[in-house]
Design brief:
It contains ten helices and 14 strands. It is of the alpha/beta class. It folds into two domains: 120 residues, Rossmann fold (3-Layer(aba) Sandwich); 155 residues, Dihydrodipicolinate Reductase, domain 2 (2-Layer Sandwich). The strands form two sheets. An eight-stranded mixed beta sheet has the order 8-9-10-7-11-12-13-14, covered by helices on one side. Strands 3-2-1-4-5-6 form a six-stranded parallel beta sheet, with helices on both faces. It comes from Levilactobacillus paucivorans. Pfam families: GFO_IDH_MocA, GFO_IDH_MocA_C3. GO terms for molecular function: nucleotide binding. This is Dehydrogenase related protein.
Length: 333
């Protein structure tokens, strides 16, 4: 069994812990929270072996194989680096790091600790429906771009409207719509189309100075990908990938719950796989496969592909922020 530690006790950490349990490949060896009461409650609810209020202590004493980091975005880098230096693999919630400088430092640390694996928790590109999209795209004679949408109203925006500054909406925590929901369609675009040649971003700023929603354009050699995302309103619009007369339609560029292929005659084929009980289970199964047998040829190839995606997404997110004139304090460190 893979000994797992966690950082963070919010809903996404709970979902990952549940996915780890469903995979039957992990044991929850330790959980970290800054607050003792929160650590005790989360650890007890999930039968963690030990609860910690000191992150360094968990890394030193937990005998961990891998740690999942779901703290505010601006804290990912320091926590990931500390784990790598202790030869502990890392699963970092997306977006993994705030800028290219942090990613470059992580790459250097990984080179010095070759047994350590770094996974970015981009759950949707590990799901069966993502693989259905890949297969459908392989059958298109040509690709002419895409419109990708992922927009959901955040309850924490109510706090902003009331004068608050929740972490997810503040530059000091490397927050905002691009870093939160925007990363999903950016990841999808990178995984399907590769690295764009140029990017543009038109953010809508909110009272905290962060972007509440925005429109991004990724320009490739032969087509563009338009990405519409936000946390201050809702959208039910489909996402689409364009061939010539054929279209691949998705319910959402983040959830990938339904996938359809529509041909020139208007006929529709439902490509959707059965709904997942937990959308994070496929990624946890994938990560376990690499951690348990890192030298198997297919595992080597898959890990390298995921790592390249992560590096490219990090660069694209940074380039989009520069294009939209969005800066984080983390950029100055």
């Amino acid at each position: 069994m893979i000994r797992l530690g966690t950082v963070g006790t919010n809903w996404i950490t709970q979902q990952l812990v549940d996915a780890a349990a469903a995979s039957q490949q992990y044991e929850l060896a330790g959980i970290y929270s800054r607050e003792a009461a929160t650590a005790k409650a989360f650890g007890g609810r999930n039968h963690a072996q030990v609860n910690y209020t000191d992150y360094t202590q968990m890394l030193a004493q937990g005998d961990l194989d891998v740690v999942y980091i779901a703290s505010p975005n601006s804290l990912h880098f320091a926590q990931a680096l500390e784990a790598i230096k202790r030869d502990i693999s890392i699963i970092v919630e997306k977006p993994a790091f705030s800028n290219r400088r942090e990613m470059t430092a992580i790459q250097a640390a990984l080179a010095q600790h070759p047994k350590v694996k770094f996974f970015e928790a981009a759950r949707h590109v590990h799901t069966p429906n993502f693989h259905q999209i890949e297969r459908a795209m392989a059958g298109l004679p040509t690709v002419q771009g895409a419109n990708l949408t992922y927009m959901k109203y955040s309850s924490r925006y109510d706090q902003v409207l009331a004068g608050g500054r929740p972490n997810v909406f503040t530059p000091e925590f490397s927050g905002g719509a691009l870093q939160d929901l925007g990363v999903y369609p950016v990841y999808l675009a990178v995984a399907l189309f590769g690295q764009p040649e140029t990017v543009a971003y038109f953010p809508t700023l909110i009272a905290t100075g962060a972007d509440g929603k925005g429109l991004a354009v990724l320009r490739y050699a032969d087509f563009d990908v338009a990405i519409n995302f936000g946390k201050t309103s809702n959208s039910t619009a489909e996402s689409e990938i364009y061939g010539l007369k054929d279209t691949i339609a998705l319910d959402s560029a983040g959830e990938l719950t339904h996938v359809f292929f529509r041909d020139a005659t208007g006929q529709e084929q439902n490509l959707s796989e059965p709904a997942l009980d937990n959308p994070m289970t496929p990624e946890m199964v994938d990560f376990a496969r690499i951690l348990q047998d890192p030298d198997a040829p297919q595992n080597v190839a898959d890990y390298q592909r995921w790592l390249e995606w992560s590096l490219t997404v990090n660069q694209v997110l940074f380039d989009l922020r520069v294009a939209g004139n969005l800066r984080f304090p983390a950029d100055q460190n």
